[in-house]
Amino acid sequence: MSQATQGAGRARWFGRTWLIAVFVFLYVPIITLVVYSFNDSRLSTVWAGFTFKWYVDALHDRELINGLILSLKIAFMSATLSVIFGSFTAFALVRYGRFKGRGLMHSLVNAPLVMPDVIIGISLLLIVVAVQRMLGTPIRGMGTILLGHALIGTAFATVVITARLREIDHRLEEAAMDLGCKPFQVFVLVTLPLMASALLSAFLLTFTLSFDDVVVAAFLSGPGSTTLPLVIFSRARLGLDPSINAVATLIIVVVSIGVVLFSLHQLRAERRRERALNSIQAQQKPH
Amino acid sequence: MQLTPLKARLRRFFTPRTVVIGVPMLWLIALAALPLLLILQISFAHMQITSVSSLWQWANDELTLKFNFGNYLYLGDDPLYFAAYLSSLKYAALTTLYCLILGFPFAYFISRAPVHLRAVLLMLVMLPFWTSFLLRIYAWKALLADNGVINNSLIGLGVIATPIHMMHTSFSLTIGMVYAYLPFMVLPLYATLVKLDGRLLEASADLGASPFKTFWLVTVPLSKRGIIAGSMLVFIPAFGEYVIPELLGGPTTLMIARVLWDEFFSNNDWPMASAVAVVMILLILIPMAVFNRYNENTKS
Fold it and tell me: How far is the alpha carbon of A30 from chain B, nearest alpha carbon, in Å?
């Protein structure tokens, strides 16, 4: 064997080991969560046989179930609001060029991306309290948590939608306009379908961000509005609780299936787009 | 068309353009600009039993402005705050460094994997990111506890006799932060490394450079953009992280977000908490400004 191939072999071996080691690091905690959700012992750390009892416990745990329902509700509404406001912001930034206040809008929409959650939480809480003193509403609860999540979501949705909007070929919209479409028709019939996958990505991302958030919700929640992460966080602070493992496992299963399906869908859409492009290019070739 | 003047004026004002710009503008001003201005204002107030003092007063035709600089002076006086800011910067820097050390070769090897495998590997990197961050941090508690999975396994294997104390130390905090932020480092690194022209590396090897030299003189400079973007994505959120130090950190691992939280919830001192927040924002804006300047320089 020559020295070069020996070196290449060693490099490949090193590469594989590194990849596997980091993936082990990324997945061991997740696997532990799943394994110990079936562990028949209150001490999450000793293996004492297989059981489903933590799943039964979790299903009868009103606090967990109510938290889950509330979190799903907030995440759905927050993702919807985020996609709507994110689309508006992205359109303003990409399509309306240099308007007065563009710089301000740009910084404001980026602010939640860099601000720590504690600062977003505290600043929104202070304004909610100030408005409440003046007008008597809003009361802290689901609505205020939703506002906080929708603000963060708007920032992330704007990033995703802006990226897609920049890629869209302007000529397609111009063609529709030339063929007699009104601006609104162009938007619904041409622009919206072209943005569909970005809107879906933005929705899923902002849904996840809301469903995961502890800190902003901790500042903005009121009595009776305890989201699932807040329940988990307060129990995790005290120690280990096997029913959390059961909930975690269910979430992991649902999310993994969702991510795999979504990736497959994206991959197929990309291939289709490539094939379509190739066939167009083939047709355009001079004979 | 017959329109009343008011209607006509409204019609002229509410064009698609003003609506598309105005709607998100109002939303962002209400939820992003005003709250931050309010924090700034309250940081100059002082606490009165259940509310904060007003900065201005109108009495006998006289406007009095009362700015309380006490909160900021106290920030400088009490060594706790300084230590907490410093410690947050330290943990954020360490997290960034470890993510880079772990993530750079990782992203590099993914970018050199066969094309069909790359998509799968990337999905595997993203998958933990989509599953609850909080639960993944919680999982480390079971791994690192004195009678946790790691200690039990090591004792079972006969490597150690008594458990190593890992929970609530700077070790558990750092490992949790690196774990949570690693994907944010890997993705931008991958994005630049995948565009790297393999022929440049071959040329370097042909000209006699050792693999290490090629890596240091060709690969690293060409992936500078990814390194900087990844470092920003890790450093900034790590600096203000609250959940990980709360769950995995201990009494010795001071982080500024926890100080702010306690100031607000335990001490109920809103002006002090606001002052802590304002200084945090300033500390974040500095690396942001450097990053933006770098970006503009490379663009032009």
Answer: 6
**Residue B192: partners with Cβ closer than 8 Å, 6 or more residues away:** B222, B223, B225, B226, B229
| pTM of the predicted structure, to 2 decimals | 0.89
In a domain, B293, yes or no: no
Per-window interface: A 158-217 vs B, CB < 8 A = 183, 208, 211-212, 214-215
Answer whether A256 sits within 8 Å of B28, measured CB to CB. Answer: no
Contacts of B111 in chain A (CB under 8 A): none
Q: Which residues contact A20 (CB under 8 A, 6 or more apart)?
A: none
The DSSP H or E segment spanning A278 is helix A242-284
B59-88 residues touching A, CB cutoff 8 A:
none
d(CA B99, CA B234): 8
Q: Which residue of A has its CA nearest to B210?
A: A7
Query: Is A108 in contact with B125 (Cβ distance < 8 A)?
Result: no
Q: Does the residue B70 lie in any domain? A: no
The residue segments making up the domain with residue B207 are 78-268
In which domain, by residue range, is A158 found? 66-239
Contact B270, B42 (CB under 8 A): yes
* Closest by Cβ to B132, choosing from A130, A147, A212: A212
Q: At which of B65, B97, B117 does a domain end?
A: B65
CA distance, residue A287 to nearest chain B CA (Å): 33
What ipTM, to 2 d.p.?
A: 0.88
pLDDT tens digits for A213-247? 999 999 999 888 999 999 999 998 887 788 888 99
Given an 8 Å threshold on Cβ–Cβ distance, is B132 in contact with A127?
A: no
Report the domain count for chain A: 1
User: In CATH, what number is assigned to the domain containing residue A77?
Assistant: 1.10.3720.10
In a domain, A128, yes or no: yes
Tens-place pLDDT, residues A4-38: 566 677 778 888 999 999 999 999 999 998 998 89
Does A26 sit within 8 Å of B24, measured CB to CB?
Answer: no
* Residue among B40, B88, B138 with most chain A CBs within 10 A, to mutate: B138
Which residues of chain A have a CB within 8 Å of the CB of B103?
Answer: 22
- Judged by a CB distance cut-off of 8 A, whether residue A101 touches chain B is yes
The count of domains in chain B is: 2
Q: Is residue B277 part of a domain?
A: no
Cα–Cα nearest to A162, from A89, A245, A267: A89
